[in-house]
Design brief:
Largest sheet: 4 strands, mixed
Strand content: 5-15%
Number of helices: 15
Strand order of the largest sheet: 2-1-3-4
Radius of gyration: 28 Å
Number of strands: 4
Structural class: mainly alpha
Order of helices and strands: HHEHEHEHEHHHHHHHHHH
Distance between the termini: 33 Å
Helix content: 55-70%
Protein backbone atom coordinates (compact mmCIF):
# COMPACT_ATOMS: atom_id res chain seq x y z
CA UNK A 1 0.00 0.00 0.00
CA UNK A 2 1.49 3.32 -1.04
CA UNK A 3 1.61 6.46 1.08
CA UNK A 4 -1.45 8.05 -0.52
CA UNK A 5 -3.61 4.98 0.17
CA UNK A 6 -2.36 4.80 3.76
CA UNK A 7 -3.14 8.45 4.40
CA UNK A 8 -6.56 8.18 2.78
CA UNK A 9 -7.42 5.00 4.72
CA UNK A 10 -6.40 6.66 7.97
CA UNK A 11 -8.53 9.73 7.24
CA UNK A 12 -11.55 7.60 6.31
CA UNK A 13 -11.11 5.48 9.45
CA UNK A 14 -10.79 8.56 11.65
CA UNK A 15 -13.85 10.23 10.10
CA UNK A 16 -15.88 7.00 10.34
CA UNK A 17 -15.14 6.68 14.06
CA UNK A 18 -16.04 10.32 14.58
CA UNK A 19 -19.34 9.89 12.73
CA UNK A 20 -20.27 6.69 14.59
CA UNK A 21 -19.49 8.28 17.96
CA UNK A 22 -21.66 11.30 17.23
CA UNK A 23 -25.33 10.58 18.13
CA UNK A 24 -26.59 13.52 16.07
CA UNK A 25 -24.99 12.09 12.94
CA UNK A 26 -26.72 8.73 13.39
CA UNK A 27 -30.03 10.43 14.14
CA UNK A 28 -29.85 12.52 10.97
CA UNK A 29 -28.77 9.54 8.87
CA UNK A 30 -31.20 6.89 10.11
CA UNK A 31 -33.94 8.31 12.35
CA UNK A 32 -34.72 11.46 10.36
CA UNK A 33 -35.52 9.62 7.08
CA UNK A 34 -38.03 7.38 8.86
CA UNK A 35 -39.77 10.31 10.57
CA UNK A 36 -39.92 12.42 7.41
CA UNK A 37 -41.17 9.58 5.21
CA UNK A 38 -43.97 8.79 7.67
CA UNK A 39 -44.91 12.48 7.72
CA UNK A 40 -44.96 12.74 3.93
CA UNK A 41 -46.87 9.46 3.63
CA UNK A 42 -49.61 10.14 6.17
CA UNK A 43 -49.63 13.86 7.01
CA UNK A 44 -49.17 15.24 3.49
CA UNK A 45 -51.81 14.23 0.98
CA UNK A 46 -52.92 15.71 -2.32
CA UNK A 47 -55.88 13.35 -2.56
CA UNK A 48 -59.25 15.10 -2.39
CA UNK A 49 -61.54 12.46 -0.91
CA UNK A 50 -64.46 12.69 1.51
CA UNK A 51 -64.48 16.48 1.23
CA UNK A 52 -67.10 17.79 3.63
CA UNK A 53 -69.83 19.79 1.89
CA UNK A 54 -73.35 20.82 2.77
CA UNK A 55 -76.41 20.10 0.63
CA UNK A 56 -79.23 22.56 1.32
CA UNK A 57 -82.45 20.84 0.29
CA UNK A 58 -85.00 23.68 0.08
CA UNK A 59 -87.28 21.77 -2.29
CA UNK A 60 -89.28 18.75 -1.17
CA UNK A 61 -89.92 17.45 -4.69
CA UNK A 62 -88.97 13.99 -5.87
CA UNK A 63 -86.43 15.28 -8.37
CA UNK A 64 -84.71 17.36 -5.71
CA UNK A 65 -84.56 14.33 -3.43
CA UNK A 66 -83.06 12.25 -6.25
CA UNK A 67 -80.38 14.88 -6.92
CA UNK A 68 -79.53 15.03 -3.21
CA UNK A 69 -79.16 11.26 -3.20
CA UNK A 70 -76.72 11.54 -6.11
CA UNK A 71 -74.34 13.50 -3.87
CA UNK A 72 -74.36 10.60 -1.41
CA UNK A 73 -73.31 8.13 -4.08
CA UNK A 74 -69.67 9.20 -4.33
CA UNK A 75 -66.72 8.61 -2.05
CA UNK A 76 -65.16 11.92 -3.03
CA UNK A 77 -67.74 14.06 -1.25
CA UNK A 78 -69.07 13.77 2.28
CA UNK A 79 -72.42 15.60 2.18
CA UNK A 80 -74.31 16.94 5.19
CA UNK A 81 -78.01 17.50 4.41
CA UNK A 82 -79.96 20.43 5.82
CA UNK A 83 -83.06 22.38 4.85
CA UNK A 84 -81.90 25.94 5.54
CA UNK A 85 -78.75 27.53 4.15
CA UNK A 86 -78.25 29.39 7.42
CA UNK A 87 -77.41 26.05 9.02
CA UNK A 88 -74.32 25.63 6.81
CA UNK A 89 -73.15 29.24 6.39
CA UNK A 90 -71.51 29.35 9.83
CA UNK A 91 -69.96 25.93 9.29
CA UNK A 92 -68.39 27.18 6.08
CA UNK A 93 -66.88 30.15 7.92
CA UNK A 94 -65.52 27.94 10.71
CA UNK A 95 -63.95 25.52 8.23
CA UNK A 96 -66.15 22.57 9.16
CA UNK A 97 -67.42 22.53 5.57
CA UNK A 98 -65.53 23.33 2.36
CA UNK A 99 -68.62 24.41 0.47
CA UNK A 100 -72.30 23.75 0.03
CA UNK A 101 -74.84 23.18 -2.73
CA UNK A 102 -78.26 24.84 -2.61
CA UNK A 103 -81.15 22.98 -4.27
CA UNK A 104 -83.67 25.86 -4.43
CA UNK A 105 -87.34 25.67 -3.55
CA UNK A 106 -88.33 26.17 -7.21
CA UNK A 107 -86.03 23.38 -8.41
CA UNK A 108 -88.85 21.46 -10.11
CA UNK A 109 -89.86 24.49 -12.15
CA UNK A 110 -86.26 25.19 -13.16
CA UNK A 111 -85.82 21.58 -14.20
CA UNK A 112 -89.01 21.60 -16.25
CA UNK A 113 -88.12 24.90 -17.90
CA UNK A 114 -84.89 23.50 -19.41
CA UNK A 115 -83.73 27.06 -20.00
CA UNK A 116 -80.59 28.92 -19.09
CA UNK A 117 -81.59 29.30 -15.44
CA UNK A 118 -79.10 27.44 -13.20
CA UNK A 119 -80.50 24.42 -11.41
CA UNK A 120 -78.47 24.77 -8.22
CA UNK A 121 -76.14 27.22 -6.47
CA UNK A 122 -72.62 26.12 -5.51
CA UNK A 123 -70.77 28.09 -2.83
CA UNK A 124 -67.18 27.19 -1.88
CA UNK A 125 -64.49 28.36 0.53
CA UNK A 126 -62.10 30.47 -1.56
CA UNK A 127 -59.43 30.51 1.17
CA UNK A 128 -58.51 27.02 -0.09
CA UNK A 129 -58.42 27.60 -3.87
CA UNK A 130 -57.54 24.05 -4.93
CA UNK A 131 -60.24 22.50 -2.77
CA UNK A 132 -62.72 25.17 -3.84
CA UNK A 133 -62.11 24.35 -7.51
CA UNK A 134 -62.44 20.67 -6.75
CA UNK A 135 -65.76 21.11 -4.92
CA UNK A 136 -67.14 23.32 -7.68
CA UNK A 137 -66.12 21.01 -10.53
CA UNK A 138 -67.19 17.81 -8.84
CA UNK A 139 -70.53 19.21 -7.66
CA UNK A 140 -71.14 20.50 -11.19
CA UNK A 141 -70.27 17.05 -12.54
CA UNK A 142 -72.70 15.34 -10.16
CA UNK A 143 -75.52 17.63 -11.29
CA UNK A 144 -74.72 17.22 -14.98
CA UNK A 145 -74.47 13.43 -14.71
CA UNK A 146 -77.75 13.23 -12.82
CA UNK A 147 -79.52 15.47 -15.32
CA UNK A 148 -78.16 13.51 -18.28
CA UNK A 149 -79.65 10.37 -16.77
CA UNK A 150 -83.11 11.96 -16.87
CA UNK A 151 -83.01 12.47 -20.62
CA UNK A 152 -84.39 9.07 -21.63
CA UNK A 153 -85.02 10.30 -25.15
CA UNK A 154 -81.33 10.62 -25.85
CA UNK A 155 -79.92 8.04 -28.30
CA UNK A 156 -77.83 5.28 -26.77
CA UNK A 157 -74.15 6.05 -26.49
CA UNK A 158 -72.29 4.26 -29.24
CA UNK A 159 -68.77 5.03 -28.00
CA UNK A 160 -67.79 4.26 -24.42
CA UNK A 161 -64.92 6.31 -23.02
CA UNK A 162 -62.84 4.61 -20.36
CA UNK A 163 -60.01 6.79 -18.96
CA UNK A 164 -56.73 5.10 -18.11
CA UNK A 165 -54.07 6.65 -15.91
CA UNK A 166 -50.54 5.55 -16.57
CA UNK A 167 -47.92 4.91 -13.87
CA UNK A 168 -50.34 5.65 -10.98
CA UNK A 169 -53.64 4.08 -11.92
CA UNK A 170 -55.16 4.61 -8.46
CA UNK A 171 -54.23 8.33 -8.51
CA UNK A 172 -52.80 8.01 -4.99
CA UNK A 173 -50.73 11.05 -4.11
CA UNK A 174 -48.62 8.93 -1.74
CA UNK A 175 -47.13 7.05 -4.67
CA UNK A 176 -46.02 10.31 -6.25
CA UNK A 177 -44.91 11.97 -3.00
CA UNK A 178 -42.79 9.22 -1.46
CA UNK A 179 -40.17 9.02 -4.27
CA UNK A 180 -39.81 12.79 -4.14
CA UNK A 181 -39.65 12.67 -0.35
CA UNK A 182 -36.67 10.31 -0.62
CA UNK A 183 -34.87 12.98 -2.66
CA UNK A 184 -35.62 15.61 0.00
CA UNK A 185 -34.40 13.28 2.74
CA UNK A 186 -31.18 12.55 0.86
CA UNK A 187 -30.63 16.27 0.37
CA UNK A 188 -30.88 16.81 4.12
CA UNK A 189 -28.54 13.92 4.89
CA UNK A 190 -25.92 14.78 2.31
CA UNK A 191 -25.87 18.53 2.71
CA UNK A 192 -26.54 18.85 6.45
CA UNK A 193 -24.12 16.16 7.60
CA UNK A 194 -21.19 17.28 5.51
CA UNK A 195 -21.88 20.94 6.25
CA UNK A 196 -21.05 20.22 9.86
CA UNK A 197 -17.89 18.20 9.18
CA UNK A 198 -15.17 20.81 8.68
CA UNK A 199 -16.99 23.37 10.83
CA UNK A 200 -16.92 20.90 13.71
CA UNK A 201 -13.18 20.39 13.20
CA UNK A 202 -12.57 24.14 13.48
CA UNK A 203 -14.76 24.47 16.56
CA UNK A 204 -13.05 21.59 18.37
CA UNK A 205 -9.58 22.79 17.42
CA UNK A 206 -8.70 19.55 15.65
CA UNK A 207 -8.47 21.09 12.20
CA UNK A 208 -4.93 22.24 12.92
CA UNK A 209 -3.89 18.62 13.48
CA UNK A 210 -5.50 17.53 10.21
CA UNK A 211 -3.81 20.34 8.28
CA UNK A 212 -0.44 19.46 9.76
CA UNK A 213 -0.54 15.96 8.25
CA UNK A 214 1.11 15.21 4.88
CA UNK A 215 -2.37 14.64 3.38
CA UNK A 216 -3.32 16.96 0.56
CA UNK A 217 -6.52 18.99 0.47
CA UNK A 218 -8.06 16.54 -1.99
CA UNK A 219 -7.24 13.62 0.30
CA UNK A 220 -8.73 15.44 3.28
CA UNK A 221 -11.95 16.15 1.37
CA UNK A 222 -12.24 12.59 0.09
CA UNK A 223 -11.53 11.23 3.56
CA UNK A 224 -14.37 13.27 4.95
CA UNK A 225 -16.65 12.43 2.05
CA UNK A 226 -16.54 8.63 1.91
CA UNK A 227 -18.04 7.82 5.35
CA UNK A 228 -20.98 10.13 4.75
CA UNK A 229 -21.40 8.80 1.24
CA UNK A 230 -21.76 5.33 2.78
CA UNK A 231 -24.25 6.62 5.34
CA UNK A 232 -26.24 8.27 2.57
CA UNK A 233 -26.41 5.10 0.49
CA UNK A 234 -27.50 3.05 3.50
CA UNK A 235 -30.18 5.64 4.24
CA UNK A 236 -31.32 5.43 0.61
CA UNK A 237 -31.71 1.66 0.86
CA UNK A 238 -33.65 2.02 4.10
CA UNK A 239 -35.92 4.70 2.62
CA UNK A 240 -36.55 2.61 -0.50
CA UNK A 241 -37.40 -0.42 1.65
CA UNK A 242 -39.88 1.69 3.64
CA UNK A 243 -41.42 3.00 0.44
CA UNK A 244 -41.93 -0.46 -1.05
CA UNK A 245 -42.79 -2.62 1.96
CA UNK A 246 -44.52 -0.15 4.28
CA UNK A 247 -46.04 2.53 2.05
CA UNK A 248 -46.89 0.21 -0.87
CA UNK A 249 -45.09 2.27 -3.50
CA UNK A 250 -44.15 0.03 -6.45
CA UNK A 251 -40.52 -0.09 -7.56
CA UNK A 252 -40.92 -0.85 -11.24
CA UNK A 253 -37.30 -0.05 -12.04
CA UNK A 254 -34.25 -2.04 -10.98
CA UNK A 255 -32.44 -1.70 -7.68
CA UNK A 256 -29.18 -1.18 -9.58
CA UNK A 257 -30.62 1.87 -11.37
CA UNK A 258 -31.91 3.24 -8.07
CA UNK A 259 -28.50 2.86 -6.43
CA UNK A 260 -26.76 4.45 -9.43
CA UNK A 261 -29.08 7.46 -9.35
CA UNK A 262 -28.65 7.80 -5.58
CA UNK A 263 -24.86 7.54 -5.80
CA UNK A 264 -24.70 10.25 -8.47
CA UNK A 265 -27.04 12.51 -6.49
CA UNK A 266 -24.88 12.16 -3.38
CA UNK A 267 -22.06 13.86 -5.32
CA UNK A 268 -23.70 17.33 -5.51
CA UNK A 269 -25.34 16.91 -2.09
CA UNK A 270 -22.05 16.08 -0.36
CA UNK A 271 -20.15 18.60 -2.47
CA UNK A 272 -22.50 21.39 -1.45
CA UNK A 273 -22.15 20.39 2.20
CA UNK A 274 -18.36 20.36 1.95
CA UNK A 275 -18.37 23.77 0.31
CA UNK A 276 -20.53 25.18 3.10
CA UNK A 277 -18.38 23.62 5.81
CA UNK A 278 -15.25 24.99 4.18
CA UNK A 279 -16.62 28.53 4.22
CA UNK A 280 -18.35 28.51 7.62
CA UNK A 281 -16.21 27.62 10.64
CA UNK A 282 -19.21 27.56 12.99
CA UNK A 283 -21.58 24.58 13.12
CA UNK A 284 -24.65 26.68 13.77
CA UNK A 285 -23.90 28.96 10.82
CA UNK A 286 -23.10 25.98 8.61
CA UNK A 287 -26.40 24.31 9.54
CA UNK A 288 -28.38 27.47 8.76
CA UNK A 289 -26.67 27.90 5.39
CA UNK A 290 -27.33 24.24 4.57
CA UNK A 291 -31.00 24.71 5.45
CA UNK A 292 -31.49 27.79 3.28
CA UNK A 293 -29.37 26.71 0.32
CA UNK A 294 -30.02 22.96 0.39
CA UNK A 295 -33.29 21.89 1.96
CA UNK A 296 -35.59 24.82 1.11
CA UNK A 297 -34.68 25.10 -2.60
CA UNK A 298 -34.97 21.33 -2.94
CA UNK A 299 -38.36 21.32 -1.24
CA UNK A 300 -39.79 24.26 -3.17
CA UNK A 301 -38.11 24.10 -6.58
CA UNK A 302 -37.52 20.43 -7.31
CA UNK A 303 -41.00 19.54 -8.55
CA UNK A 304 -41.63 17.55 -5.39
CA UNK A 305 -44.84 19.39 -4.48
CA UNK A 306 -45.17 22.13 -7.08
CA UNK A 307 -45.18 21.59 -10.83
CA UNK A 308 -42.12 23.22 -12.40
CA UNK A 309 -44.01 23.88 -15.64
CA UNK A 310 -46.48 26.06 -13.70
CA UNK A 311 -43.70 28.32 -12.37
CA UNK A 312 -42.68 31.61 -14.02
CA UNK A 313 -39.91 31.38 -16.61
CA UNK A 314 -37.17 32.95 -14.40
CA UNK A 315 -37.96 30.51 -11.59
CA UNK A 316 -37.93 27.58 -14.02
CA UNK A 317 -34.45 28.66 -15.08
CA UNK A 318 -33.31 28.69 -11.44
CA UNK A 319 -34.62 25.15 -10.91
CA UNK A 320 -32.03 23.89 -13.39
CA UNK A 321 -29.37 24.66 -10.78
CA UNK A 322 -31.10 22.53 -8.12
CA UNK A 323 -29.72 18.95 -8.10
CA UNK A 324 -32.86 17.63 -6.39
CA UNK A 325 -34.89 18.60 -9.44
CA UNK A 326 -33.17 15.91 -11.49
CA UNK A 327 -33.19 13.37 -8.66
CA UNK A 328 -36.93 13.79 -8.04
CA UNK A 329 -37.62 13.32 -11.75
CA UNK A 330 -35.46 10.19 -11.91
CA UNK A 331 -36.86 8.68 -8.71
CA UNK A 332 -40.47 9.10 -9.84
CA UNK A 333 -39.54 7.47 -13.13
CA UNK A 334 -37.70 4.58 -11.45
CA UNK A 335 -40.48 3.87 -8.96
CA UNK A 336 -43.57 4.41 -11.11
CA UNK A 337 -42.45 3.79 -14.71
CA UNK A 338 -39.29 1.66 -14.68
CA UNK A 339 -35.76 1.94 -16.07
CA UNK A 340 -36.16 4.62 -18.74
CA UNK A 341 -32.61 5.65 -19.56
CA UNK A 342 -33.75 8.41 -21.88
CA UNK A 343 -34.83 10.15 -18.68
CA UNK A 344 -32.01 8.91 -16.44
CA UNK A 345 -29.01 9.87 -18.59
CA UNK A 346 -29.73 13.64 -18.87
CA UNK A 347 -30.53 13.75 -15.14
CA UNK A 348 -27.34 11.87 -14.23
CA UNK A 349 -25.22 14.16 -16.39
CA UNK A 350 -26.80 17.27 -14.85
CA UNK A 351 -26.28 16.01 -11.28
CA UNK A 352 -22.69 15.00 -11.99
CA UNK A 353 -21.93 18.39 -13.54
CA UNK A 354 -23.36 20.32 -10.58
CA UNK A 355 -21.54 17.99 -8.18
CA UNK A 356 -18.24 18.52 -9.97
CA UNK A 357 -18.72 22.27 -9.71
CA UNK A 358 -19.38 22.05 -5.97
CA UNK A 359 -16.26 19.94 -5.40
CA UNK A 360 -14.12 22.31 -7.42
CA UNK A 361 -15.37 25.23 -5.36
CA UNK A 362 -14.83 23.28 -2.13
CA UNK A 363 -11.28 22.48 -3.23
CA UNK A 364 -10.62 26.15 -3.91
CA UNK A 365 -12.13 27.20 -0.56
CA UNK A 366 -10.16 24.68 1.52
CA UNK A 367 -6.50 25.63 2.06
CA UNK A 368 -3.82 24.10 4.23
CA UNK A 369 -3.37 27.15 6.41
CA UNK A 370 -5.03 28.56 9.50
CA UNK A 371 -6.20 31.83 7.94
Amino acid sequence: MNAVSQRLSALVYKESLQALRDPSTLLIAFALPVVLLFLFAYAVSLDARDVRIGVVLESEGASAQALAAAFSGTRYLDPRFVHDRREVADKLISGELRGYVVIPHDFEQRLAGRGSVPLVQIITDGSYPNTANYVENYARGVVQTWRAGLDVAAPPQTVALEPRYWFNAELESRRALIPGAIAIVMTIIGTMLTALVVAREWERGTMEAVLSTPASVVEILIGKLLPYFTLGMLATLGAAALAVFVFDVPLRGSLAALLLLSAVFMVPALGQGLLISSLARNQFLAAQIALFTGFLPSFMLSGFLYEIDAMPAPVRAITRLIPARYFVDSLKTAFLAGDIWAVFIPDVLAMATIGGLFFWLARRATRKNLE
